[in-house]
Design brief:
alpha+beta, Glycoprotein, Type 4 Pilin, two-stranded antiparallel ribbon, 3 helices
Length: 157
């Protein structure tokens, strides 16, 4: 004899409840937010490292110019984004811009030559995104009169 089945039978299928799905999605969202914050901070630090490197390379080319001419170039003769040359001598094929120059538009390095200084002095300044960078205070102390706030300074030494 056959066993009679009840007219309503429920089969539970393996799966997740709505609450479980919402918990997992919110945990993934929190982790993604944390990762993006750290990723953006790492990008800012990388741009700051690039700024410091650029200024030191520019300083080296300015020093080579000084060794040849016994003076630093005038501000109007030194343009970011163009070659730095004098006659046949090329000191830098391309004087770099600030890494965020194209994105933001205006923030760029600043070069100034202080003619009044008897030693023919120059200042190169870049604004760093990480205002708590320890190198800022050191460079401003070493290059007195160059930079303020969160500006990294390089000068003729």
């Amino acid at each position: 004899m056959r066993k009679k089945l009840s007219p309503i039978t429920y089969h539970l299928s393996p799966g997740f409840t709505l609450i479980e799905l919402l918990v997992v999605i919110s945990i993934i969202g929190i982790l993604a937010a944390l990762i993006m914050t750290n990723f953006n901070a790492a990008r800012e630090r990388a741009r700051d490292v690039q700024r410091k490197s650029d200024l030191n390379q520019i300083k080296t080319s300015l020093r080579m110019y000084y060794n040849d001419k016994n003076l630093y170039p005038l501000t109007k003769n030194f343009t970011f984004g163009e070659p730095f040359a004098s006659g046949e001598m090329v000191y830098m094929k391309y004087v770099p811009h600030d890494p965020s120059w194209e994105e933001v538009g205006d923030p760029d390095y600043v070069y100034s030559r202080l003619i009044a200084d008897p030693n023919d002095y120059f200042c190169l300044v870049a604004t760093l995104e990480n205002a708590s960078d320890g190198d800022i205070a050191k460079t401003q102390l070493r290059c007195s009169g160059c930079g303020s706030g969160n500006q990294y300074a390089v000068c003729a030494e």
